[in-house]
Amino acid sequence: MARPAGDNSLANREIERKFLVSSDAWRDGTPGVPMRQGYLSEGTRATVRVRVAASHAWLTIKGRAIGGVRPEHEYEIPVAEAEALLPLCSGAIVEKERHRIAHGDHIWEVDVFAGANSPLVTAEVELDSPDEAVTIPGWVGREVSDEPRYSNSSLAQHPYSDWPTRSRLAP
Questions:
Q1: Given 39, 75, 150, 160, which residue is catalytic?
Q2: pLDDT tens by residue, 44-76
């Protein structure tokens, strides 16, 4: 998610690390937020995503990461407009349920994928700088930040359920 626009030092950039989830120990019974998202453009310079989550929707433009930091511009749009854009997306619509879990000084976003990307479960943590220290929860497994195939835009084009079992990383 993009940083608050009022903080110019952090605005319009994203720094995150992504991991596979290795156990259900993160579950606390709190329901997650169902999300659907698709990609209007996936190119070498930028990706354009439309996302619907509960009663909100966003259009997000993300640039390519350099040194773990990538530009990100996010705009809330009417849900009806997002719903009209989803059929224009290439690849599959990515369906997931997002859970926000506090651990240490960070909020972790755990995505439980549905549909063609089930049974994949990932966890992401946003950072203020690429070298920021983060306490890794015990339910987090292998880091996949540098594995492009685990990006949501890649999962739209090449769903997890289509991957040969031997090519999936153990959490």
A1: 39
A2: 789 999 999 999 999 999 998 888 889 999 999
Residues 81-137 pLDDT 10s:
999 999 999 999 999 999 999 999 999 999 999 999 999 999 999 999 989 999 999
The phi and psi torsions of 87 (rounded to 5 degrees) equal -65, -15
Note if 150 is an active site residue.
no
| Contact in structure between 115 and 38 (CB atoms under 8 Å) | no
Joined together, the tokens standing for residue 67 give: 């040194």
The length of the chain, given as a count of residues: 171
Write down all domains in the chain, each with its CATH number in brackets.
13-167 (2.40.320.10)
Query: What is the pTM assigned to this prediction?
Result: 0.89
